[in-house]
# Entry
Amino acid sequence: MTEPSVNLRNPALAALLAWLIPGAGHIYQGRIGKGILYAICILGLFFIGLIMGEGKIVYWRWVNPLQNPEKFPLYYLGQFFVGLPSLPALVQSLLERYGHGPILGGFMAEPSQNTLNALQNRLGKLVEIGSIYTCVAGLLNILAIYDAFDGPAYHDETSPEAQAVPASAGGIPAGGSV
Amino acid sequence: MNPSASVEVYWLILPLVIAISLVYSASRHESWRRIWWHSARLCVWIMGLLMMATAILLLINTQV
# Structure
């Protein structure tokens, strides 16, 4: 593996920041443009999805996925990687588990089955699409976290795409400086 | 949901594909020119494959 062409500063801290707030790790590394791009794409997808589901599609409940797979909130495994924006769900479920009431007006607290059914009847496919948006946002942030930790997958002068970029698209010849 | 609304739902794939293309490309390159170029290409590829799969499934569905 070649030396990274970008200064990753403290990669572990950058990865942690990238998980907490998508794009923050890159901004910490001085890769401002990339940080903004990640933030817009990932947070945009997450919040649009959340709005589609009227804020009730991001939640966590403590169930054993092997004993009760139907109740297991699979989407949250992806949503978790959006970082801070999805953490209220974890906090709410912890509070409920230890016998406390929800905080923040029940934001991201587990909705009742009746609420979920009513939402499904009223919004139809939007609930499913919102869940996919929020889950994919988290999965995309895994790519961003890895980029913050290890730098880009290809250093541009050695990437296979380098040969394919036409001059009109601003391609830099292989071996040329970036 | 009325039929026109159900058709409009399919447009929601577009922002998803654009975001996936941009983030994936950004994770591979550092140069903005390459990021835009790769992401545009990837976006066209994904949309093309999705449309092809939809066409094939529709064809099978109407023949059966």
In short: Chain B has a mean pLDDT of 90. The helical segments of chain B are 3-8, 13-28, 32-63. The longest helix of chain B spans residues 32-63. The radius of gyration of chain B is 15 Å.
